[in-house]
């Protein structure tokens, strides 16, 4: 059932090229220059006329929502707010019938997300679901939706659900960008082709597994770890930290790289590994100077860089390369090494990778 892999988590990490492809199959029609998604097509007016989109989710799905915020605002010019479902439902938010709420949930059973949906519906919002489990409570409770076609995710640590959620949300953002006239026809085509190329780039990224295992060996006994990223890769930093803490029990925090100097930099010493996402484009120069600040305080740098990178290679302790892609799609690649890093570290520490302590696959109580 684990298809020859030692753990579900590893199997699911390796399934990502296929899962992403399954998710855009039949929807992304690059040769026709078209994105077809029934749930969006049938409710296009609601999305186009929306004052804003509110995204609610928990955990990893909330991180996918944050990536989506960058994509929707950047590409489709639609204002987006991303909320933890648990906070949103209890803080008497201002919601009107001009709002569109997108709920993201792998399991479709998360209690807080479900409650947030019910509340938004009562206040007149149009509610759209992005779920993985077909026929789940959230899929049934929403007005419309789009499934991720990741296949069953068994490992408690979410992996392929995250990348397929980003895939679905990218398709929606691109479709709306085109329908709203916020993006030129040629740019739209460029993104479609780029998205089509992601599965093989994920495949390529997975080839770093051996190198990542060696890096894991060096840092497996760390007690703390920082993850930094900017722009599209800030949520990836949060996700990397969540993955490490939940399966290896190492304390980890994700931060926007520029926030370092507002506090966390005080933590840096030779004992502190810092994982930095430093891909080309996306404030590259600024991230390089953030790396220098850490190095001058003896921190250890594990950098995720674009293939062929030179500047970061000179200063980082370890570099893991990912293929080049357009900036909004970098999270689909930069996430992969972080999943593998946490997997190997957890394994080396003798942790139960697929079923970490105190956690359940779906959180059906608030
Ligand atoms: O099923 P959902 O996507 O609604 O679950 C949300 C979170 O409980 C989930 O992502 C959790 O944070 C994972 N264990 C993260 O790996």
Give the SSE layout:
Layout: H1 8-14, H2 16-24, E1 28-29, E2 34-35, H3 38-41, H4 44-48, E3 52-57, H5 59-76, E4 80-84, H6 85-88, E5 99-105, H7 111-122, E6 126-131, H8 137-141, E7 144-147, H9 160-180, H10 185-196, H11 198-206, H12 209-219, E8 224-229, H13 234-248, E9 251-256, E10 273-278, H14 284-295, E11 300-306, H15 311-315, E12 318-322, H16 331-348
Parallel strand pairs: 3-4, 3-5, 5-6, 6-7, 8-9, 8-10, 10-11, 11-12
Antiparallel strand pairs: 1-2
Bound molecules: 5-amino-5-deoxy-1-O-phosphono-D-mannitol.
Protein name: Glutamine--fructose-6-phosphate aminotransferase [isomerizing]
EC number: 2.6.1.16
Function: Catalyzes the first step in hexosamine metabolism, converting fructose-6P into glucosamine-6P using glutamine as a nitrogen source.
Characteristic terms for this protein:
16 helices, binds 5-amino-5-deoxy-1-O-phosphono-D-mannitol, globular, 5-stranded parallel β-sheet, aminotransferase, glutamine amidotransferase, 17% strand, glutamine-fructose-6-phosphate transaminase (isomerizing) activity, transferase, Glutamine--fructose-6-phosphate aminotransferase [isomerizing], 366 residues, alpha/beta
């Amino acid at each position: 059932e684990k298809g020859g892999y030692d753990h579900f988590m590893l199997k699911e990490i390796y399934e990502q090229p296929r899962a992403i492809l399954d998710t855009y199959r039949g929807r992304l029609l690059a040769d026709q220059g078209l994105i077809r998604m029934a749930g969006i097509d049938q409710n296009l007016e609601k999305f186009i006329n929306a004052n804003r989109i509110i995204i609610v989710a928990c955990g990893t799905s909330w991180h996918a929502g944050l990536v989506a915020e960058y994509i929707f605002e950047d590409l489709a010019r639609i204002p987006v707010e991303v909320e933890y479902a648990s906070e949103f439902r209890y803080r008497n938010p201002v919601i009107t019938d001009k709002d569109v709420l997108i709920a993201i949930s792998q399991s479709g059973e998360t209690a807080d997300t479900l409650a947030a949906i019910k509340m938004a519906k009562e206040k007149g919002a149009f509610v759209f679901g992005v779920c993985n489990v077909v026929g789940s409570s959230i899929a049934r409770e929403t007005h419309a939706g789009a499934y991720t076609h990741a296949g069953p995710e068994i490992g408690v640590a979410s992996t392929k659900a995250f990348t397929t959620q980003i895939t679905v949300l990218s398709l929606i953002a691109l479709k709306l960008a085109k329908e709203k006239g916020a993006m030129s026809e040629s740019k739209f085509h460029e993104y479609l082709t780029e998205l089509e190329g992601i599965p093989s780039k994920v495949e390529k990224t997975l080839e770093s597994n051996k190198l990542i295992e060696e890096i894991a060996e060096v840092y497996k006994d760390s007690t703390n770890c920082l993850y930094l990223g900017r722009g599209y890769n800030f949520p990836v930093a949060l996700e990397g930290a969540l993955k490490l803490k939940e399966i290896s029990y190492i304390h980890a925090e994700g931060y926007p790289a520029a926030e370092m100097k507002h506090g966390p930099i005080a933590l840096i010493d030779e004992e502190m590994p810092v994982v930095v996402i430093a891909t080309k484009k996306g404030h590259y120069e600024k991230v390089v100077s953030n790396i220098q600040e850490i190095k001058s305080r003896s921190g250890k740098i594990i950098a995720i860089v674009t293939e062929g990178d030179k500047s970061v290679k000179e200063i980082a302790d370890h570099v893991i390369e990912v293929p080049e892609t357009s900036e909004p799609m970098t999270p689909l690649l930069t996430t992969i090494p972080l999943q593998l890093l946490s997997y190997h570290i957890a394994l080396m520490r003798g942790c139960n990778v697929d079923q970490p302590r105190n956690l359940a696959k779906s959180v059906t109580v608030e």
